[in-house]
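Hi V.,

You were right to ask for the full record rather than a summary. Here it is.
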Amino acid sequence: MTLAVTESDTERIARGLRHRDVALLHALVQQYQYRLVRYFIFLLGSRDPVDDLVQETWLRVLERGHSYDGESRFEPWLFAIARNLAIDHTRKRRMISLDSNDADEHEPAPLTPVSCEASPFEQAARIEDAQHLAQSLQRLQPVVREALALRFQEELSLQEISHVVGASVSTVSSRIYRGLAALRQQMDGGEHAN
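Predicted structure:
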């Protein structure tokens, strides 16, 4: 009796991308679209360029799908593409801002999820906490903020984050540790100030 060897999800994705399987790409977009949007907003601190960057990410996935080997999870490969596009966008934006008189002085509006079951008081407290957290996160260095987003929002392992950002696992671990310590200090400082 021989057992049928089933194809893993990563192998199926790799095969589908090599063959430019439209149904697979549609399924990937459905599954990861929200996470990409969230990652870009978190990384860039603004919603403005996100739709274009998400669309460009999917175009790159289609164009470069042959390079995904299927031996590791799809998410780190996808987020590495997204990260590179965000870096390119930031560089272009800096070059444009150096040439113009427009200063990027506006702070992005924080995302504030609200539960329908909470009382108005609880909602206000949650919004205030979320705003405080969003402001604290924006004060962190972008590489630290990114490490926190990939670890706690996207639930990537330290090794996967290392692959995405192109840094060693110890560097990623250090960024997360520093970020959590800085957030703790900022959040505690904010509570004592009120």
